[in-house]
Amino acid sequence: MAHFVIMGVGRVGVMVAHTLEDSGHTVAVIDQDDRAFRRLRKSFEGKKVTGLGFDREVLRRAGIEEAYAFAAVSSGDNSNIIAARVARETFKVRHVVARIYDPSRAEFYQRLGIPTVAAVRWSADQALRRILPEQSITADFREASGRLQLGELSLDDSWSGLHLEAIEEAAGVRVAFVTRFGEGVLPGPDTSYQQGDVVHAMMRTGEVEAISRILSRPPDPDVLDFANSLRRDAEDASGADRTTYPGGN
């Protein structure tokens, strides 16, 4: 199972830590006030580290070098974003999320490549969606028969730059909209996936696990070839110079 590091042992941090531990993962929690650890249940077996969550030594004590993901969910926006950047840029943790209280700053944070969640009732659920390892996609909506659902896609970073149509072709989904810099965007004919985007797509309920597996790995050569054909078609239409995706023909 994976190891997770959680900064901030408030209501959201406790919910995230307990949920991860219940799923069989190892968890370390960080808080600068050791009294915060009293909020954890008595049976919590994870590591408790007192200190600042953006301090490198504190993070090492929490096992950040082996962490699958890091969640910064303390009460301070600045502390959360700094800690998230240290986790990603210094320790190369691929799955990082930061909780924010000021939604107007979301665009700035997203430009740094840090997924964010707003401080609302569902922030614990949203944080878990962005850091849990490959698993079934949680449905935001199911149509009446239960055969189709709308859910958020979790894509490997290597899909960045590929046209949304290539993602649809690879996974057998239909992209409904993209959340970019905190705002919903309807995909157009030239819309590509950017790192930090949240992609919402309709998919067959019975294919959710297969879709998760496909998108959690880098795109295969056939997908890159298809993406390059889309790029060439667009360039032919616009008269632009042709370029290709790495790995494509």
User: What's the overall average pLDDT, rounded?
Assistant: 84
Order of helices and strands: EHEEHEHEHEHEEHEEEHH
How would a crystallographer describe the biggest sheet? 6 strands, parallel
- The proportion of residues forming helix, as a percent range, comes to 25-40%
**CA-to-CA gap between the ends?**
37 Å
**Alpha carbon gyration radius:** 19 Å
What share of residues are in beta strands? 15-25%
Protein name: Potassium channel family protein
Pfam families: TrkA_N
Keywords: Ion channel, Ion transport, Transport
InterPro entries: NAD(P)-bd_dom_sf (IPR036291), RCK_C (IPR006037), RCK_N (IPR003148), Trk_Ktr_HKT_K-transport (IPR050721)
Structure overview:
This protein has 8 helices and 11 strands. The protein has helices at 11-22, 56-61, 77-90, 106-111, 123-131, 164-171, 208-215, 221-238; strands at residues 3-7, 26-31, 47-50, 69-72, 95-100, 116-118, 139-142, 148-153, 174-180, 183-185, 198-204. The longest helix is centred in the C-terminal third of the chain and has 18 residues, at 221-238. It is globular and about 60 Å long.
